[in-house]
Design brief:
The protein has helices at residues 57-64, 79-95, 119-129, 144-160, 170-177; strands at residues 4-11, 30-38, 41-49, 69-75, 101-107, 133-135. Helices cover 33% and strands 23% of the residues. Strands 2-3-1-4-5-6 form a 6-stranded mixed β-sheet, with helices on both faces. It is of the alpha/beta class and 187 residues long. Bound molecules: guanosine-5'-triphosphate (GTP). It holds the Pfam family Ras. It is a lipid-anchor. Belongs to the small GTPase superfamily. Rab family.
């Protein structure tokens, strides 16, 4: 999933997904569940992957409209996937919930050659839109758990916020926890 959003929603175990889509034989939307434990509490994330179907943008509105979190991935070896992010952010601001948690991820950080998007470019774009950012690798797993954990923490914090509790700062948390790719994969 690159240059397009994946959506995550936290639910109680066993709950029926609340999102549905028009049935189309050529629209392949995959959903996976992931359970993360946050401060001893199990949080189930339903993850929807748009699976490269940009031409179905009008359909994707239907599912990210209700999402509690959106992971925007681009591929650091593919400039157009990075360029697409602005368009997605514009769409998200129009169609998603106002308090949706958004995270920008530059994937394939493991590649040692072929990188066309510098880490700083991702950081700058994220800063411009005020969203947390990190580079990930689905191949090595770098920062993948952290992305889901940070979202689960944020959603849990919002759901259980008690007066007087210190607020959870997702960007600070990510900055303190994220791993950076080795020296050789930078441009
Ligand atoms: N080296 C490396 N390869 C990756 C990584 N993530 C995905 N790939 C490879 O990139 C290719 C595309 O991966 P997908 O997950 O299908 O990416 P996608 O953008 O969802 O593809 P579409 O759904 O077809 O648009 C596959 O060959 C993956 O094995 C990564 O972090 N590192």
């Amino acid at each position: 999933m690159t240059g397009k959003p994946g959506a995550a929603a936290a639910t109680r175990d066993g709950e029926v997904p609340k999102l549905s889509l028009p049935c189309s034989p050529s629209y392949d939307l995959t959903r996976k569940n992931k359970v993360v434990t946050v401060d001893g509490v199990r949080v189930k994330l339903q993850i929807w992957d748009t699976a490269g179907q940009e031409r179905f943008r009008s359909v994707t509105h239907a599912y990210y409209r209700d999402a509690q979190a959106l992971l925007l991935l681009y591929d650091i070896t593919n400039k157009s996937s990075f360029d697409n992010i602005r368009a997605w952010l514009t769409e998200i601001h129009e169609y998603a919930q106002r308090d949706v948690v958004i995270m920008l991820l530059g994937n394939k950080a493991d590649v040692s050659s072929g990188r066309v998007i510098r880490s700083e470019d991702g950081e700058m774009l994220a800063r411009e839109y005020g969203v947390p950012f990190m580079e990930t690798s689905a191949k090595t797993g770098m920062n993948v758990e952290l992305a889901f954990l940070a979202i689960a923490k944020e959603l849990k914090y919002r759901a259980r916020q008690q007066a007087g509790e210190p607020s959870f700062q997702i960007r600070d948390y990510i900055e303190s926890q994220k791993k950076r790719p080795s020296c050789c994969s930078f441009l």
